[in-house]
Design brief:
Layout (H helix, E strand, L loop, with lengths): L9 E7 L7 H9 L10 E7 L2 H6 L7 E6 L12 H15 L2 E6 L8 H4 L10 H18 L2 E4 L2 H8 L4 H7 E3 L16 H6 L6 E6 L8 H14 L5 E6 L17 H11 L6 E3 L8 H9 E6 L9 H6 L6 E4 L12 E2 L4 H13 L1 H17 L2 H17 L1
Length: 396
């Protein structure tokens, strides 16, 4: 076992994106393989960037486990075409050196519904039948050549089952949770919301946190705020949208002169909500304004439309232990009894927001649900689950 006996130090090499703060896989890797989790566990974990050179040399470093954090793309934008080359290579040399190969597949599209899974590629609809065949081949190859496949969501498991055999799934696939990011975002009050945006002490901040794309359904939060302010006469709610500008090509019908953030800003103007909706743009984790927003937020909103993978944004805000409202879709079924509302239903969302504002018992219960999920899915627990998987692999 690479010079280690069964009770020796477990050596794991993790290949992951590492370079950009805005990269979801990089942030997941930083949260999961936190050096603070290692003392006393008899394990050494090294994280390297998933570059061609590091992929080529990984088996020769002779770890017990090579663990690839894989989101179809590896390091290209060709839907993982490079995986067709690198996985056979990793498999061959890992077998030569007795190294086990584990893969976490972060994005598992529904191969039977590519128009729904990839709406931003609608202009290439004619290629979807070929794309379905390729993605099935891709899944089958990665599963066949990995000793263990780790999935982070129920919906990911359901999608992968469409592409591989039941026997393969039962033998190789394990599901863990995305976890609760003990965020490197601090909750500290700096008074910036008041200084820059005129937020008053009596205002209640509902925050949309995370990169804004059409499948996030942020427009339904604006519709719900419109109901609260203009039909129900509620002066207190304020909506804060923390997101950078998304490209025009990411908006349905992209290239028609409007981005998704631009669309949300237009909806805000049309409904005369300019004083009630705050667009901050992208904020780094260390930005004092983001710290202020996290400290002042009354509730986080996730009005997502049905999507194919779990949300790193909710894993971050769980660490605040503040109330969370989520749309009733499969990707949020990973969590336990979070308050929810019907997908695309602004009236239902407005009703839930009203309940939080008016009913102290409902507010307390929603807060307890966030706290319970934060504890249940603490990242150190997810890390321990990974150690169990690694040790089982090494013992085989």
């Amino acid at each position: 076992m690479n010079g280690n006996d069964a009770m020796g130090t477990l050596r794991v090499l993790v290949l992951s994106s590492t370079r950009r703060e805005r990269d979801g896989i990089a942030e997941y890797t930083r949260q999961l393989f936190n050096p603070a989790f290692l003392p006393g566990r008899n394990v050494q974990i090294e994280v390297r960037n998933v570059s061609p050179l590091n992929l080529l040399t990984a088996p020769f470093t002779r770890p017990d486990i090579v663990h690839v954090q894989h989101e179809f793309f590896l390091f290209d934008r060709l839907v993982g075409v490079t995986a067709l080359l690198f996985y056979p290579y990793l498999w061959f040399w890992s077998r030569c050196f007795g190294v086990k190969l584990a893969t976490t597949i972060h994005s598992t599209y529904n191969i039977d519904d590519l128009p729904g899974a990839l709406p931003h590629f609608a202009r290439y609809r004619a290629l979807f039948p070929l794309g379905r065949l390729y993605l099935k081949l891709h899944f089958r190859l990665v599963v066949a050549l990995s000793d263990r496949i780790v999935l982070l969501s129920k919906i990911g498991a359901a999608h992968l089952q469409r592409a591989i055999s039941r026997r393969q799934f039962e033998r190789k696939v394990v599901r863990v949770h995305l976890g609760n990011y003990q965020a490197n975002i601090q909750m500290r009050r700096h008074g910036l919301l008041a200084q820059r945006y005129g937020v008053a002490p009596e205002d209640k901040i509902f925050t949309l946190f995370g990169f804004a794309f059409p499948n996030k359904g942020y427009e339904h939060a604006i519709f719900a705020l419109d109901l609260l302010v203009h039909q129900r006469g509620r002066p207190a709610p304020r909506l804060v949208i923390v997101s950078g500008e998304t490209g025009k090509s990411s908006f349905p019908g992209g290239g028609q002169g409007e981005s998704y953030i631009g669309y949300l800003q237009r909806l805000t103007r049309e409904r005369q909500l300019e004083t009630r909706v705050i667009f901050t743009g992208y904020l780094a984790n260390t930005d004092p304004l983001l710290e202020d927003i996290f400290a002042e937020t009354f509730c986080f909103l996730f009005p997502y439309l049905n999507r194919n993978f779990p949300s790193g944004a909710i894993s971050t805000v769980l660490a605040t232990r503040k109330p969370v409202l989520v749309s009733r879709i499969p990707c949020f079924e990973e969590y336990e009894d979070l308050p929810s509302f019907e997908e695309k239903n602004a009236t239902d969302l407005a009703d839930q927001m009203t309940a939080l504002l008016d009913d102290p018992q409902f507010l307390a219960a929603a807060t307890r649900r966030t706290q319970a999920n934060a504890d249940t899915f603490a990242m150190e627990r997810i890390f321990i689950r990974h150690l169990e998987i690694y040790r089982q692999l090494r013992a085989r």
